[in-house]
Amino acid sequence: MLGNVKELEATESNEDKARVIHKLRQQEKYTLTEILAAIGFPKSTYTYWQAQWKKTNPDKELKDEILEIRKEHPNYGYRRIHATLLKRGMEINRKKVHRICKELGSQVKNFGRKYRKYSS
């Protein structure tokens, strides 16, 4: 259990801590109250994250659509992706598209400005 406690200290978010507690509960023969008391983690926070894991993702279809557009057009940023989604008939907010693109890490990496040499 000592190795898992060190893993808990290294994590920052409550979700990560709840995941480690869930792993401890699955692997070792400790009760939940013993684990929570040893770590000093609230039971309500642990149960909250368990409920969050069971929820379905409402943006799953949108994420799949964005990934499909990125596969067809790898140089499209979130603005062009948003325009393409509008053309496909999906009424979606630009900010939501931007947030999902950030979550997916689908940023354009090979974009360069055109440069022409100028001599006077």
UniProtKB/TrEMBL annotation:
Where does the record place the HTH-like domain?
59-109
Identify this protein by name: HTH-like domain-containing protein
